[in-house]
Amino acid sequence: MSQKILTVDDSKTIRLIIQRAFRDCECLFFEAANGEEGLAAAAREIPALIILDITMPVMDGVTMLTKLRQSPELKDIPVIMLTAESSRKTVDCITQLGVRDYITKPFKDGQLMDKVNRIMQLPQRVAAPAA
């Protein structure tokens, strides 16, 4: 059974890079361009994992994470934050809000998958039998 993954980033390119990192896994992706859209998608889909950018318009990732943690239905969803800035202040803030892990941009597919694999097991795609 496919795991639902929500990617929340204002960059379509980053969302595509994230999906590409999961190419060998059975995952169903949902996307949002900001925290407001991300909260709505999380409530609607109840994903197994959220990959969340910090800096976005409309609602940033820290605000979205805060609201996720206040929601009884969404508070236990693991979140990996993406950030271009890894200052101690930022890391302390998101850690206190219950983020499971974070990764700094730019990142490689393998880095992201290592962090995901520490949180959850993802079903692998089954190769089509040779004809």
Q: Name the CATH superfamily assignment.
A: Response regulator
Mean pLDDT: 84
Uncertain runs are: none
Percent of residues in beta strands? 15-25%
Q: What is the quaternary state of this protein?
A: single chain
Topology order in helix (H) and strand (E) letters: EHEHEHEHEH
What's the CATH topology name? Rossmann fold
- CATH architecture title: 3-Layer(aba) Sandwich
Q: In CATH, what is the class?
A: Alpha Beta
Number of domains: 1
Compute the separation of the termini in Å: 25 Å
The Cα radius of gyration reads 14 Å
Description:
This protein is an alpha/beta fold. The chain has a single domain, classed as Rossmann fold, CATH 3.40.50. The protein is 39% helix and 20% strand. It contains 5 helices and 5 strands; from the N terminus they run E-H-E-H-E-H-E-H-E-H. Strands 2-1-3-4-5 form a 5-stranded parallel sheet, with helices on both faces. Helix 4 (88-96) links the parallel strand 4 (79-83) and strand 5 (101-104). Helix 1 packs across helix 5 and helix 2 packs parallel to helix 3. The chain is globular. The two termini are 25 Å apart. The model has no long low-confidence stretch (mean pLDDT 84).
